[in-house]
Amino acid sequence: MHRRFVTLITAGAAAALVLSGCSAGGTSGGDGDVTLDFSQWWEVELSPGVMRGLMDRFEEEHPGIKVNLISNPYSATVDLQTSAAATGTLADIVAINGASVYDLQDQGAIADLSALMADADFDPAQLVSNDQIDGVTYMVRALNFAYPMYYNTDLLEAAGIDTPPTTWDEFDAAAAAVTDPDKNVYAWSLPINVQSPAGFDSQSWLWSSGDRMLNDRQANFETPEIAEWLEFLKGQYDGGYVTPGAFTQQEQQKVEEFTAGRNAFMIGSLAHIAGIRESNPDLNFSIASVPAKAGESSGIAGASWGLGIAENSEHKDAAWELIQWLVSEDINSELATEATGFPGNIDAVPGFVDGDELYQAAFDVYSNSEFVTELEGLPRALDLNRNLNENLVRLLQGDADVAQTQESLQTYWTDVLSK
């Protein structure tokens, strides 16, 4: 079930994403206790009480260390990241992933974890991946996630659709059949928020078809495959199948639309399963591959829950103790089970698949797909994602045609990636 990820990031490339706290780091109590601020989006996506429960157990096993969780949705965490990094006020521990590690490291905002590992006699070989920038580790992956397609079985059945679509043409027909604006029901959501770019709702359609935005880590937008992908997205938008408000919608709002039964489809991580079941236990849904251009889906979007330590933290050793605990075999297995992700510890085994048809369907999709992380390992990855959204907004608004969109993307991404 494990897939080993190897990401060696050079000076011109790297990545990490969400984090950010609103303090300048943890505090030391008068009795000598250390309080670590831990900024993350995990508590929001896990079932209620799970994250706090883990922290309580850590505190019991590590007397003298307390953990203050700073919890925000993914997009909000990203929004806090830039200002906190620039002002040296990152929380002691920050949840990050593959879209901004390079930028955080380049700012000097996150600490050298290799040195902390060595001081703690921690063997990085026990990790599924050991992401590095110029030979130094700045992020530890706690979990890896796949992003298949969720579908509402009741909405599909009501529209006379027996099986989920596997091709773009089939999806187009299904989208038309399920969309009913009078009932506020739409096929899917396409959050392309420029201020808070997140998720893989647009890119997944390209990757599922075996096509890519990059070739040898350089921009490759002026191809027939990219043109077809952009035309497909515009067709979905112009057809009225996409939930209104795509240009300002955020990732969490997309999940809320699906959970409420107002969307028939959603591209999302498996971490949402528990939350959807908790919020709407009557919702009947399942999981399948993202439809490919001509069937035979071959790629699935991937991301990670990573961990970093703020350079401004006064408690780096204590912060590393928490990270090391979270990626230990037993705890990592438990976290993976709760979040429905793949463990970061190579020996950890999640327990969520056994006996659950929905999880089994999800991992059947994963096991038959290539794990795609095109933006990971790129400088200014968040900025590139933002530029993609900006160009998609212009395309969908009718301010640019497909050819102009391709040219604009090629020019901007080439400039960023050639430096």
Automatic annotation (TrEMBL):
Signal peptide: 1-24
Keywords, alphabetical: Signal
Keyword Signal attributed: yes
Keyword Cell inner membrane assigned: no
Segments forming a coiled coil: none
SUPFAM superfamilies: Periplasmic binding protein-like II (SSF53850)
Protein name per Swiss-Prot or TrEMBL: Carbohydrate-binding protein
Origin species: uncultured Microbacterium sp
Lineage of origin: Bacteria, Bacillati, Actinomycetota, Actinomycetes, Micrococcales
